[in-house]
């Protein structure tokens, strides 16, 4: 499964280009720009499963750092500050990772 099975390539390109500069990434802005916040729960879950590289059921810090690269191969890695802010925005229970329910809540708040 490719992310373009759920999201339009043009929306992905726009979202990636909007956060090319270091420390310019915002998860809520990215989810809105890429169109994920308008998708159904099963479609959002497909994207979550793609982001969960190790299939642990959670998106951990190392997976968050490479978040943009899941959408576009040439995209940059998130900075340490962006990764930390993303984790803080999504990790509602404070366990240091983002589960499906937390991811869904973050996307739907976008």
TrEMBL record:
Q: Which GO terms describe its cellular component?
A: cytoplasm
Q: Where does Ca(2+) 1 bind?
A: 52, 54, 56, 58, 63
What are the protein's UniProt keywords? Calcium, Metal-binding, Muscle protein, Repeat
The record's listing under PROSITE patterns reads: EF_HAND_1, EF_HAND_2
Q: Name one GO molecular function term.
A: calcium ion binding
> Which stretches make up the EF-hand domain?
39-74, 78-110
Summarizing the function annotation, the protein's role is: In muscle, parvalbumin is thought to be involved in relaxation after contraction. It binds two calcium ions.
PANTHER family on file: PARVALBUMIN (PTHR11653:SF12), PARVALBUMIN ALPHA (PTHR11653)
Which named protein is this? Parvalbumin
